[in-house]
Write a structure and sequence with these properties.
Elements: H1 14-29, H2 34-41, H3 45-53, H4 60-69, H5 74-86
């Protein structure tokens, strides 16, 4: 079970790092470039780059659209993400326990 200590507004938490890494890994594994995803979304390539680097955060609807653009079921993405963050980690800022 995921535990929330507090919700950080920072885009640089361990959980956010995992979220972005998973999006990128799935995109690459499906053979899509950032430009491919951006074109499908009708947005500039820099949008995808900013998401993957943490310069921009995504809301739920944007996450669903991103997953759809790379051909990944949103529920499957959520399950993969949950598995990553629940392996002994909590949703909290780095360095706090």
């Amino acid at each position: 079970m995921l535990k929330l200590r507090f919700v950080s507004k920072s885009a640089f938490t361990q959980s956010n790092d995992e979220f972005r890494a998973l999006l990128k890994e799935l995109r690459v594994s499906k053979g899509f470039t950032q430009a491919d995803v951006a074109k499908t979304l009708g947005l500039p390539q820099s949008y995808v780059s900013k998401i993957e680097t943490g310069e921009r955060r995504m809301d739920f609807v944007e996450t669903a659209a991103f997953c759809d653009a790379i051909g990944v079921d949103l529920a499957a993405f959520a399950k993969l993400f949950s598995g990553r963050v629940s392996r002994g980690r909590v949703l909290a800022r780095r360095g706090t326990r």
